Each structure stands twice: as C-alpha cells, then as structure tokens.
C-alpha cells in the first residue's frame, strides 16, 4: 500500500499516511485529519486543495485540472504553471508520494476547511499525460 508523507512548507514531516492504492489524495488527507482547505468539496472548481507533490509526481493529470489551471495562468496567476502543483481532489494515489498543502485552514479567511468529499474523482476524469521535467528530481 502506498505511503503519503505530508510535509509542511519547510519540508518537515508532519505525518505519514498509508492508503489503499487508487485512493483520491484529498479524501486520504481529510480522512487522516490533515490540515488542508477544500472549499468546493473536491470538484475541481476552486484551487484551495492544491498541493505541491515533492516526490512521486503523477504521470497523468485530469483535464478538469488542466483547464482550470490554463484559465488561471491566462489571468496572470503563473504559480499554476508548475509541474508539481496539483489539485488533491484530482489525484489518485498509486505510489508513494510526499506532499505539502498550499492552503491550510485559517479562521479569518475560511468559514470551515470544507465538507467531506467523495471517494471518486469529480467530475469524471479524462486523463491527460503529465510530463515531469528531469530537474524536478522524480524518485
């Protein structure tokens, strides 16, 4: 079974989660009480559940994520043009990975972290190949 290692923004390990292969990353993080915001409920409509995948970057991404990121990049949000930034609601855990949440809960900014999410990817995913450059250091 794959292990998801959750690190903070400084790279310090916060927890290690063992999950069943094929689990949606956001669901695994929520079920193991990881501090991550997911405002839209895991439907690829916002970007609050985004993570940086430091190790174990997937070789596929959902079309919903791709389209949302392309739109945001067109509007000048260049942070979404990075090969290791993903929406955790659009990632299936197939192998070990190390992740950090981009947005954690803050009572001033958020009413709640978000509601529980489904086990399946929504919307139904259309998978696209995702090329990770050598400089990112895939393990």
Descriptive overview:
This protein has 139 residues and is of the alpha+beta class. It has one domain: Beta-grasp domain (Ubiquitin-like (UB roll)), CATH 3.10.20. 14% of the residues lie in helices and 25% in strands. It has helices at 25-31, 63-74, and strands at residues 3-7, 13-18, 23-24, 50-55, 60-62, 85-87, 92-93, 97-101, 127-129. The protein has a five-stranded mixed beta sheet with strand order 2-1-8-4-6, with helices on one face. The chain has a two-stranded antiparallel ribbon with strand order 3-7. Strands 5-9 form a two-stranded antiparallel sheet. The longest helix has 12 residues, at 63-74. The protein is globular, with a radius of gyration of 14 Å. The model has no long low-confidence stretch (mean pLDDT 93).
